[in-house]
Write a structure and sequence with these properties.
single chain; alpha+beta; six-stranded mixed sheet; 48% helix
């Protein structure tokens, strides 16, 4: 498995876990609503149901966001080779390594850390279209692109 394929698989696992977590939260909240019994204090009952519904709404939004991230990830061709930074590029700089795919945080492959970022993120946009040897500045920090895989 290539480095890109390993990073891609780690991103997919991260997103899949987010989806499963959101689905579980939705199921738990729906079960809690079903188990809620109407008490003599009607306002308390309605408030509890509303809070559970808000939990469902927030978890649904997180799940939809994760599914959109998964759709973006699924469109990335891990076998693509480019001299400029595109989605799916592994970018090695003097100040860190990046995988341009989706925001999945820090990923480790064979002891090396890569920051998984979205191409549409501010740092992703700062790198857009650059090639080996180019420089870019992000958050007042200068980066030199050592290699693109």
């Amino acid at each position: 498995m290539t480095l890109k394929e390993q990073l891609h698989a780690l991103c997919k696992a991260y997103i899949d876990a987010r989806i499963q977590n959101a689905e579980q939260q939705i199921a738990d909240a729906r079960e809690a609503i079903g188990n809620e019994t109407k008490s003599s204090a009607g306002d308390k009952y309605e408030t509890a149901r509303e809070m559970m519904q808000q939990d469902i709404d927030m978890a649904t939004a997180r799940m939809n966001d994760a599914r959109q991230q998964l759709a973006v990830l699924d469109r990335i061709d891990t076998s693509a080779i480019s001299e400029v930074i595109i989605p799916g590029s592994v970018v090695l700089t003097d100040n860190g390594n990046f995988y341009i795919a989706t925001n999945a945080g820090q990923l480790k492959v064979e002891g090396v850390t890569y920051q998984s970022i979205s191409f549409t993120s501010p740092i992703g946009q700062a790198m857009k279209g650059l090639s080996k040897g180019n420089r870019f500045t992000f958050n007042r920090k200068e980066y030199i692109i050592d290699n693109i895989e």
